[in-house]
């Protein structure tokens, strides 16, 4: 009896899938080979695919709205002088990555879901490039995410940040700790290094007078905590099954390495003239 191609949808749980458990789409027969699904099964497969597309489209619109609202909210707080611009920028820095990752379980469990989620950082990349090149203007965005309110600043830290989100979404998604830890270190670690170091960083590093011990300790501590926290978050949804003791050791090593790199005196001047290590 000829075996027939099997239709298979990647089975990893999404928050919505957990509420609507699906019957298996593979149809083993008693002889151990698979057979083509019946017309009823094919209709179910098609309806599952349509449901997943609708779920992912809705999730994409919701997360895009969240991104827009986040920037608007901090712009309002800055305009009302409730928080200073640097703190606003760093809170957007911390929250964007963590909230974006936290939104991943609302997407479906299909293999295409990551491409829907990647639309969010991709559109934000286009926004940052268009505003950074002066093609359009958006004072709210510029005030919320730049140091000095210059549009061209959008093409530096913010654009790199969103590109990292895009790459981690496309190539790692929620199935690999690599992307999760990378985003947690970038958003939680680097964000709090700035927030804490700028305020309490009187004792400077011997090899970099722009950075401080407390800032680097914050980078390590918050990078580690955000990484473990997000790995635990995704393990709750069943995306990851981790041996925690080895994971904790590896994340501590990664946090230390990231802290050392972040503390190096590498700035725009150094990048332009590598012999100019301050
Ligand atoms: N290990 C660190 C990191 C940051 N800081 C404090 O936070 C400020 C900004 O940190 P920096 O890493 O320069 O910010 P970036 O993330 O590089 O740049 P951006 O301002 O674009 O975020 C520093 O001047 C310093 O006061 C610190 O004390 N110790
Ligand atoms: C200030 C930043 C980096 C430099 O330190 C962060 C820039 C953030 C972008 C302007 C907006 C990025 C939005 C995310 C792609 C999606 C967030 C969604 C979430 C639900 C808020």
Give a short summary of the structure.
It is built from 9 helices and 2 strands.
Keywords:
single chain; 278 residues; mainly alpha; two-stranded antiparallel ribbon; 63% helix; 3% strand; disordered N terminus; binds cytidine-5'-triphosphate; binds the ligand C/C(=C\CO)CCC[C@H](C)CCC[C@H](C)CCCC(C)C; transit peptide; kinase; phytol kinase activity; transmembrane helix; EC 2.7.1.182
What does it look like?
The structure is a single chain. With 278 residues, the chain is mainly alpha-helical. The chain is 63% helix and 3% strand. The protein has nine helices and two strands. Strands 1-2 form a two-stranded antiparallel sheet. Helix 1 (39-79) runs antiparallel to helix 2 and helix 5 (157-171) runs antiparallel to helix 6 (177-200). Residues 1-12 and 16-21 have low confidence and may be disordered. The site of ligand LZ56GOFG has 21 residues, from helix 1, helix 2, helix 3 and helix 5. This is phytol kinase. It comes from Dioscorea cayennensis subsp. rotundata (White Guinea yam). The chain crosses the membrane at residues 59-78, 90-107, 113-133, 154-172, 217-240. One of its GO terms (cellular component) is chloroplast membrane. Belongs to the polyprenol kinase family.
């Amino acid at each position: 009896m000829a075996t027939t191609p099997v239709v298979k949808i990647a089975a990893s749980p999404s928050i919505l899938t957990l509420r609507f458990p699906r019957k298996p789409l593979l149809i083993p027969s008693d002889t151990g080979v698979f057979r083509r699904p019946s017309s009823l099964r094919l209709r179910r497969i098609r309806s599952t695919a349509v449901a997943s597309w609708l779920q992912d489209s809705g999730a994409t619109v919701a997360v895009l709205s969240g991104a827009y609202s986040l920037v608007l909210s901090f712009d309002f707080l800055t305009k009302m002088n409730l928080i200073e611009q640097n703190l606003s920028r760093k809170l957007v820095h911390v929250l964007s990555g963590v909230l974006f990752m936290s939104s991943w379980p609302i997407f479906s469990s299909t293999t295409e879901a990551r491409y829907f989620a990647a639309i969010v950082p991709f559109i934000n990349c286009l926004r940052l490039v268009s505003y950074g090149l002066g093609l359009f203007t958006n004072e709210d965005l510029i005030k919320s995410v730049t140091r000095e309110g210059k549009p061209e600043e959008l093409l530096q830290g913010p654009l790199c940040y969103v590109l990292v989100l895009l790459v981690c979404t496309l190539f790692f998604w929620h199935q690999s700790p690599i992307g999760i830890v990378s985003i947690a270190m970038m958003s939680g670690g680097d964000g709090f290094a700035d927030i804490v170091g700028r305020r309490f960083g009187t004792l400077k590093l011997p090899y970099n007078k722009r950075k401080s011990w407390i800032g680097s300790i914050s980078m390590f501590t918050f990078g580690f905590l955000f990484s473990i926290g997000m790995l635990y978050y995704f393990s709750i949804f069943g995306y990851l099954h981790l041996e925690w003791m080895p994971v904790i050791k590896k994340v501590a090593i990664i946090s230390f390495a990231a802290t050392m790199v972040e503390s190096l005196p590498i700035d725009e001047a150094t990048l332009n003239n590598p012999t100019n290590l301050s």
